[in-house]
């Protein structure tokens, strides 16, 4: 994937990241590092939880899309993160297809400083198109790259 | 640390997590896993960035407090995460003391279902007491544990 230059940023531009799945082992490994709660790391306990089975830790899917899709496209322009708002709407189970999209919802430029606060909206949906998570993230991008 | 039971949850109760520091190598290792942007993983590039040096990836400090302090205290009651709002206010550099506190700001009980939506406010401050990050997190907790 070719990095995207700031001049190609546009409000409402959608970046479709396709889908990912995570295996039970990947759910456990990620959660052991980040979020070792029973319903993320213990299959039996997870079956007795409200989820009825192992569920991915909140940031797991974002981590994959961020690392493999968003960063390769946008890293050259990123100057720093400002704010993130994250809603966990439905559980994400092993081997489920999770579709990811990002869209630019706002661009506030600071021409003097040559940077812009860009609002990114991510949504993660299942095959039925139901929302699993949404993320609104404000990032400072350089206008020079 | 002894896990905290739901009956000991109180609005405005502060949990002081002391402080942590992260080394340059820890900043690089975490960011390679989660957030491999130049100013997190490349010392020279970071010196030329707006930060003037390597800075910790957004979730790095939270990950440490969450894993080593919050989860051991509250994991027995946690049923799932609902929402997170995160503000990145100032950069966190290597070897800087970062003080962490969590406080319960709201408890909405659902007595029928025996669970409660609890709002947690985290703040991470430096030695001068300046805010580095704040996090507001809504978590579903069991009232039975």
Task: Describe what is shown at a glance.
2 copies of one chain form a homodimer. Chain A contains 4 helices and 5 strands.
CATH architecture of chain A: Roll
Low-confidence stretches of chain A: none
The assigned structural class of chain A equals: alpha+beta
Mean pLDDT of chain A: 96
Helix tally of chain A? 4
Which oligomeric state applies?
homodimer
Share of helix of chain A, binned = 10-25%
Total discrete domains of chain A? 1
Order of helices and strands of chain A: EHHHHEEEE
Distance between the termini of chain A: 16 Å
Global geometry of chain A: elongated
- CATH-assigned fold name of chain A: Thiol Ester Dehydrase, Chain A
CATH class of chain A: Alpha Beta
Plain-language structure description:
The structure is a homodimer of 145-residue chains. The first copy, chain A, is built from four helices and five strands. The first copy, chain A, has 145 residues and is an alpha+beta fold. The first copy, chain A, has one domain: Thiol Ester Dehydrase, Chain A, CATH 3.10.129. In chain A, strands 1-3-4-5-2 form a five-stranded antiparallel β-sheet. Chain A is elongated, with a radius of gyration of 17 Å. The model of chain A has no long low-confidence stretch (mean pLDDT 96). Chain A binds chain B through residues 33-39, 49-51, 55, 58-59, 63, 66-67, 71, 75, 78-88, 91, and chain B through 33-39, 49-51, 55, 58-59, 63, 66-67, 71, 75, 78-88, 91.
